[in-house]
Amino acid sequence: PTGAGFVAIACRSHHSVGLRSDGTVVTWGSNRSGQRDDAPTCAGVVAIACGWCHSVGLRNDGTVVTWGSNRNDQRNDAPTSAGFVVIACGWRHSVGLRN
Question: Which of 7, 10, 39, 78 has the fewest CB atoms inside 10 Å of its own CB, making it the most exposed?
């Protein structure tokens, strides 16, 4: 990607995610499982994490957004409530820590 202002980078096997200082997300690499097409287009993301073929973003309101593969329900089970302060991804799963 071009441009400056990145405050965080996350990567996994075939894709990468960058977080800009304005809270927007930039993706690059493979899009085989929607790792790029499904990325959030809104601002307000404060943290990012990458799994094998999926990614997770933590919004400034404590909610979680997911995109990419859902082969192992790593997106279907994403919580809809707020209160998260930390996120992380494993091979085909994601976890979050609530305040």
Answer: 7
Where are the strands (E) in 3-44, listed by range?
A: 6-11, 15-20, 25-29
Quick one: residue 50, left, alpha or beta (phi over 0 = left, psi -120 to 50 = alpha)?
beta
Q: pLDDT by residue (tens digit) across 10-61?
A: 998 888 999 999 999 998 888 787 778 777 777 899 999 998 888 999 999 9
Query: Are the C-beta atoms of 66 and 94 separated by less than 8 Å?
Result: yes
d(CA 61, CA 84): 8
pTM: 0.86
